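stage 2 :: seqdesign
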């Protein structure tokens, strides 16, 4: 039985970073997708982002949207505690990552996030940002958490998984409308492309695989200053035989 969506994802190191501290999750069979961006200014950002995507993939199926949101949030809280303990053991300030998660249900799409990894929706020829960045001040090439901000006027992350003892996840519930395309991305995408450029690519590429190649390829063809990661999910109609 075919699934009522098509998706694709891709992650690349970029031209400046030595390591890829991003991680993506594409679990179509679960209706679950995520992009996690490990904090490059801290220790083991790749450990944090990989742990998030691995643990979310391992979640058991939930019965309804409320159970799903609770399960994702509870798992992120457990990961937060684990990363705080890891940072303490390593005697570093933080082992942390941002994350954006999208969950597909029968009638709704649910997006949760911590930090500045983004979700966009493209519908009826228009793109808008579903999430809002947990950043205080102006965005910069190097956005770090709190007092770790390197430049005086640079943006400071106000939330990240593993950054503080208490974690708060924001959620948005969106009606399920066939034809809508969602894009999840790390800031390696929106550092190189404006929202207007992302919208143009969404308009040109209805196939998620083509859209992801266009977005990631454009970022890499420019400075590629950060790790570059994106996931796209296009919602389709349910077949009449679909339960």
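stage 2 :: out
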């Amino acid at each position: 039985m075919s699934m009522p969506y098509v998706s694709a994802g891709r992650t690349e190191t970029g031209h400046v970073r030595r390591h890829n501290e991003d991680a993506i999750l594409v679990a179509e069979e679960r209706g679950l997708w995520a992009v996690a961006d490990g904090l490059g200014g801290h220790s083991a950002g790749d450990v944090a982002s990989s742990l998030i995507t691995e643990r979310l993939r391992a979640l058991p199926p939930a019965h309804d949207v409320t159970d799903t949101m609770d399960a994702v949030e509870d798992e992120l809280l457990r990961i937060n505690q684990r990363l705080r303990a890891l940072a303490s053991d390593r005697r570093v300030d933080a082992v942390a990552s941002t994350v954006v998660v999208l969950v597909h249900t029968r009638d709704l799409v649910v997006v949760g996030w911590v930090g500045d990894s983004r979700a966009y929706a493209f519908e009826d020829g228009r793109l808008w940002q579903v999430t809002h960045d947990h950043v205080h001040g102006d965005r910069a090439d190097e956005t770090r958490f709190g007092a770790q901000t390197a430049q005086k006027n640079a943006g400071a992350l106000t939330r990240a998984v593993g950054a503080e003892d208490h974690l708060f996840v924001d959620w948005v519930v969106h009606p399920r409308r066939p034809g809508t395309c969602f894009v999840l991305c790390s800031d390696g995408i929106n550092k190189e492309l404006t929202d207007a450029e992302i919208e143009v690519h969404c308009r040109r590429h209805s196939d998620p695989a083509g859209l992801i190649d266009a977005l990631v390829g454009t970022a890499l063809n420019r400075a590629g200053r950060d790790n570059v990661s994106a996931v796209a999910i296009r919602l389709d109609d349910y077949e009449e035989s679909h339960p």
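stage 3 :: structure notes
- The chain has five helices and 13 strands.
- The longest helix spans residues 65-90.
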